[in-house]
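Supplementary Methods. Inverse-folding protocol.

Structures were first reduced to a C-alpha cell string of length 157. This string, shown here, constituted the complete conditioning input.
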C-alpha cells in the first residue's frame, strides 16, 4: 500500500473529527480522568474546524494513494516558549492511525512530515503530549528518540 500525506482540508472535517474522537475515547479507556464529554462528536468537529482556521495549527492527513482512503492524522501546534531558546516549539497534540493500518510505519511517516512542517515554521524543538498510561505512544516516541521534557502531575478536586 502506498501512503501519501497532505494537509487536512475543509472536506476532511468529518473524517478527521471521527479519528480524533476515537483517540479521545481511547484515552478514556486508558484512564478515567480522561472521561470524554457527552457531545464529543460536536466538540471534535469544532476543534478540527477551529484548527483549520488557525495559523498556529498544522494538520496532516495520511491516505492510501490508490483509493484515497484517509488512514491517519497528526495535529501540531506552533507555540512561542517566551522564556526559552529555541523559542518556537511544535507540540504534537494528536496522532492517530486507523487500527487496521497500524504497524505499517504510517505514524512514522506522519511524524517525519510533522517535523518538516515544524521546521518550516521556525520550530527548534518538537514535543508530544499523551496520557501517561499510553504505552504504545510511549514505545512509538521512544523509538523515535524523544526524551521526557516536562512532567504533569494531577490531583482530582
Ligand atoms: C500510536 C499510533 C499512532 C502508532 O501508529 P502506527 O502507524 O501503528 O505506528 P508505526 O507503525 O509507525 O510504529 C513505529 C514504532 O512504534 C512502536 N509501536 C507502534 N505500535 C506499537 C504497539 N502496538 N506496541 C508496541 N510498540 C508499538 C514500535 O516501536 C514501532 O516500530 P516496529 O513496528 O518496528 O516495532 C497508533 O497505534 C494509534 O493510532 N494509536 C491510537 C492513538 C494513540 O494512542 N495516539 C498517541 C497518543 S496522542
Amino acid at each position: 500500500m502506498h501512503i501519501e500525506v497532505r494537509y487536512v482540508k475543509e472536506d476532511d472535517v468529518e473524517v478527521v473529527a471521527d479519528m480524533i474522537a476515537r483517540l479521545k475515547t481511547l484515552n478514556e479507556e486508558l484512564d478515567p480522568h480522561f472521561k470524554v464529554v457527552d457531545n464529543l462528536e460536536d466538540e471534535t468537529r469544532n476543534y478540527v474546524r477551529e484548527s483549520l482556521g488557525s495559523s498556529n495549527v498544522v494538520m496532516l492527513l495520511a491516505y492510501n494513494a490508490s483509493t484515497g482512503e484517509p488512514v491517519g492524522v497528526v495535529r501540531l501546534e506552533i507555540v512561542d516558549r517566551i522564556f526559552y531558546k529555541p523559542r518556537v516549539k511544535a507540540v504534537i497534540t494528536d496522532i492517530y492511525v486507523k487500527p487496521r493500518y497500524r504497524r505499517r510505519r504510517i505514524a512514522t511517516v506522519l511524524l517525519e512530515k510533522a517535523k518538516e512542517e515544524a521546521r518550516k515554521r521556525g520550530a527548534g524543538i518538537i514535543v508530544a503530549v499523551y496520557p501517561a498510561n499510553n504505552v504504545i505512544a510511549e514505545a512509538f516516541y521512544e523509538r523515535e528518540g524523544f526524551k521526557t521534557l516536562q512532567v504533569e502531575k494531577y490531583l482530582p478536586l
